[in-house]
């Protein structure tokens, strides 16, 4: 089965492709099919992921999978949330993973509560009008370190410390991170849902 991935993020594509391989599903980036980015006007991960999935399916005629993910910091009332990718731009930095990490560490200086969750919401639709989208949510709670550690992963991985491993996501081997990350958890749920609803 070929499914369009409603994202142009190569890191997400590589992670999700590895996770969906057991289903015999081929994920194709929407950019490779000439599809631009959907608008994401909503304040929740699930609404944005659904909008992206419907948009990608409408423009390709294929079933679509969309991921909306972000960092939810307790001290900021759950923000940056859906604005995670552009977090640093509100502080005058150019959009990049490194600048996002830098801005987050600056904003948390002197803050005692460094608890945060990384959330991944996956939504899959069979068609643009699918009345029963598949929805899977993965969540990992950890603490924001005071400086980046590790060279694996992307996004906030170098500052997301996971107590059960005693390391940041960026310090973990890729296969361990993929199995236990927010995206790993949502992908595992999504695989089960697809097997049960779409491939049975």
Automatic annotation (TrEMBL):
- GO CC aspect terms: cytosol
Q: Catalytic activity, per the record?
A: XTP + H2O = XMP + diphosphate + H(+); ITP + H2O = IMP + diphosphate + H(+); dITP + H2O = dIMP + diphosphate + H(+)
Q: Does this UniProt record's set of keywords contain Ligase?
A: no
Which molecular-function annotations from GO does this UniProt entry contain? Answer: dITP diphosphatase activity; ITP diphosphatase activity; metal ion binding; nucleotide binding; ribonucleoside triphosphate phosphatase activity; XTP diphosphatase activity
Which annotated residues bind Mg(2+)?
39, 68
* Key words of the record: Hydrolase, Magnesium, Metal-binding, Nucleotide metabolism, Nucleotide-binding
UniProt-annotated catalytic positions = 68 (proton acceptor)
GO terms (BP aspect): nucleotide metabolic process; purine nucleoside triphosphate catabolic process
Q: What is its EC number?
A: 3.6.1.66
Q: Which InterPro entries does the record associate with it? A: dITP/XTP_pyrophosphatase (IPR020922), ITPase-like_fam (IPR029001), RdgB/HAM1 (IPR002637)
Q: Where does substrate bind?
A: 7-12, 69, 154-157, 177, 182-183
Q: Note the Gene3D superfamilies from the entry.
A: 3.90.950.10
Q: Name one Pfam family in it.
A: Ham1p_like
Q: What is the required cofactor set for this protein?
A: Mg(2+)
Q: How is the cofactor bound?
A: Binds 1 Mg(2+) ion per subunit.
Q: Do you know which HAMAP family this protein is assigned to?
A: Non_canon_purine_NTPase (MF_01405)
How is the subunit organization of this protein annotated in UniProt? Homodimer.
Task: Quote the function comment for this protein.
Answer: Pyrophosphatase that catalyzes the hydrolysis of nucleoside triphosphates to their monophosphate derivatives, with a high preference for the non-canonical purine nucleotides XTP (xanthosine triphosphate), dITP (deoxyinosine triphosphate) and ITP. Seems to function as a house-cleaning enzyme that removes non-canonical purine nucleotides from the nucleotide pool, thus preventing their incorporation into DNA/RNA and avoiding chromosomal lesions.
Record family assignment: Belongs to the HAM1 NTPase family.
Stored PANTHER family: INOSINE TRIPHOSPHATE PYROPHOSPHATASE, INOSINE TRIPHOSPHATE PYROPHOSPHATASE/HAM1 PROTEIN
Its protein name is dITP/XTP pyrophosphatase
Source organism lineage? Bacteria, Pseudomonadati, Pseudomonadota, Betaproteobacteria, Burkholderiales
């Amino acid at each position: 089965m070929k499914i369009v991935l409603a994202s142009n993020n190569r890191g997400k594509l590589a992670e999700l492709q590895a996770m969906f391989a057991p289903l015999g599903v081929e994920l194709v980036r929407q950019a490779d099919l000439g599809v631009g980015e959907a608008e994401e006007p909503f304040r929740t991960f699930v609404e944005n992921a659904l909008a992206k999935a419907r948009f990608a399916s409408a423009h390709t005629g294929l079933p679509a999978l969309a991921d909306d993910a972000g960092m939810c910091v307790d001290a900021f009332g759950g923000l940056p949330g859906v604005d995670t990718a552009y977090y640093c731009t509100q502080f005058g930095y150019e959009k990049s993973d490194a600048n996002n990490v830098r801005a987050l560490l600056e904003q948390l200086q002197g803050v005692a509560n460094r608890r945060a969750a990384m959330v991944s919401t996956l939504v899959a639709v069979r068609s643009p009008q699918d009345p029963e989208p598949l929805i899977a949510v993965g969540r990992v709670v950890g603490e924001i370190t005071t400086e980046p550690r590790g060279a694996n992963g992307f996004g906030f991985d170098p500052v997301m410390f996971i107590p059960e491993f005693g390391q940041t996501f960026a310090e973990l081997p890729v296969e361990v991170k993929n199995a236990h990350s927010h995206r790993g958890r949502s992908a595992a749920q999504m695989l089960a849902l697809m097997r049960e609803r779409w491939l049975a």
